[in-house]
UniProtKB/TrEMBL annotation:
<dbReference type="InterPro" id="IPR011949">
    <property type="entry name" value="HAD-SF_hydro_IA_REG-2-like"/>
</dbReference>
<dbReference type="InterPro" id="IPR023214">
    <property type="entry name" value="HAD_sf"/>
</dbReference>
<dbReference type="InterPro" id="IPR036412">
    <property type="entry name" value="HAD-like_sf"/>
</dbReference>
<protein>
    <recommendedName>
        <fullName>Haloacid dehalogenase-like hydrolase domain-containing protein 3</fullName>
    </recommendedName>
</protein>
<dbReference type="InterPro" id="IPR044924">
    <property type="entry name" value="HAD-SF_hydro_IA_REG-2-like_cap"/>
</dbReference>
<dbReference type="Pfam" id="PF00702">
    <property type="entry name" value="Hydrolase"/>
</dbReference>
């Protein structure tokens, strides 16, 4: 399911014009002169900026076979992972927070994934298998960067918008995965659940992002309603952000949502970041009166 990101005909057909966002002139001192109704935009990571190439079960099963273990049923392993992930999150919230490292947390989760799938792995084999999986998920072959995110970040930077990450994830995203995928250079701040000890939709994680933007970017008078959050989870991202006071857009890259229900509930839905640009543009007085991104995108 996650691998459909680049094959989505709606997204794929629109990405040809996304690079035209780069046409906006670079302005100086934009942090104090944002042209956007949202001086700050925060973004979720998995399912919004990046996706997996294939399922977790497929990667776990492949790693097991290479480690000499007969774990061929990737669907069973995928289901086992889903159970293990929920179980481990409940037992050790926020990827263990300050109780353990992210690597220790994932060691437990991986082991329980195979157990739930019905596979018995010896202690020595289990460690070798985990190290293989740990290395695999630290490599770029696992991930797919959504093609519209980098042009969007460039557009936001040139428009004077402070951008941040709010993610339910461990320190490896910040230290390894996102830099490896070249997704950190144009992002101003990062808020990860493991470091904060709280996770979306808890208002405290949105509070952490809000205070960070106020403190570090000269936005002391920033109001909550002037922050836009974008993510793919209705509960964690959309409701979490709205309940804190942010504006929010629900990302639906794979068109899984019931749009009639979303429309009835007043939920703005975007299929890609081009539609996020359109949403911001419609709320921007400057864009209506001057050089609207739509004029460039539709040219």
């Amino acid at each position: 399911k996650m691998s459909r990101a680049l094959s989505n005909p709606r997204l794929h057909g629109r990405t040809m014009v996304v690079p035209m966002l780069h046409r906006f002139p670079l302005r100086t001192n934009m942090r104090s002169f944002s042209l956007s109704p949202y001086p700050v935009v925060t973004v979720d990571v998995t399912g919004t900026m990046i996706s997996y190439k294939g399922s977790v079960g497929e990667w776990y099963s492949s790693a097991a076979r290479k480690a000499g273990l007969p774990c061929a049923d990737y669907e069973a392993i995928d289901n086992g992972f889903k159970l293990a992930y929920k179980e481990t999150c409940k037992k050790y919230p926020c990827f263990g927070a300050n109780m353990m490292t992210g690597k220790e947390w994932w060691r437990i989760c991986v082991q329980r994934s195979f157990e739930h799938a019905g596979y018995s792995v010896g202690e020595d084999q289990a460690e070798a298998l985990f190290q293989r999986i740990w290395s695999l998920f630290g490599s770029p072959k696992i991930y797919e960067v959504c093609p519209d995110i980098k042009p969007f970040l460039t557009w936001a930077k040139r428009r004077g918008i402070v951008t941040g990450i709010i993610s339910n994830s461990d320190e490896r995203y910040a230290d390894g995965v996102l830099p490896m995928l070249q997704l950190t250079e144009q992002i101003d701040f990062f808020v990860f659940s493991k470091k904060e000890g709280v996770e979306k939709p808890d208002p405290l994680i949105f509070e952490a992002a809000f205070r960070r933007a106020q403190t570090f970017y000269g936005l002391e008078h920033l109001e909550r309603g002037h922050v836009l959050h974008i993510g793919n989870s209705y509960d964690a991202d959309f409701l979490g952000a709205k309940n804190f006071g942010f504006d929010a857009i629900l990302m639906d890259r794979w068109e899984d949502l019931d749009l009639e229900i979303m429309s009835a509930e007043g939920v703005p839905v975007a299929y890609d970041f081009l539609e996020v640009v359109e949403y911001i543009t419609k709320k921007s007085t400057y864009a209506k009166d001057c050089c609207s991104p739509l004029a460039h995108l539709n040219s």
